[in-house]
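Hallway conversation turned thread

IA: we were arguing at lunch whether anyone had actually written out DUF3579 domain-containing protein end to end. Turns out nobody had. So, for the record, here is the sequence (106 residues) and right after it the structure tokens. Reply here if something looks off.
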Amino acid sequence: MDQPISDFVLIQGVTASGKTFRPSDWAERLAGVMSEFHPASRAGGRRIGYSPWCVPTTCAGTKSVIVNHKLKHYEPMAWDFVMNFARDNDLRVLACDADGVPLNPA
């Protein structure tokens, strides 16, 4: 996927079989691991917080994470980590807008 159809993907806390992914704080944990990755303009003097490229959210009552495609260009291994996490746990991944609204809801 060289040219994304959206600048963002939404990883939903629901497996392909429709089961809720556990633990219930998985989105915050994943975003916490990715919190070190920020645009270069934020280097130095950062406060503790989530990366703008990997943000936990709730979408239609489901824990989710919004991932910006900019992460892929800034740190490809971090992008691969997030996408592999979704694949390994059989989570739904959808193109979305910046607010996490799926472009093609499942």
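OS: looked through it. The CA atoms of residues 18 and 29 lie 21 Å apart.
IA: good, adding that to the notes. The helical segments are 26-33, 70-74, 76-88.
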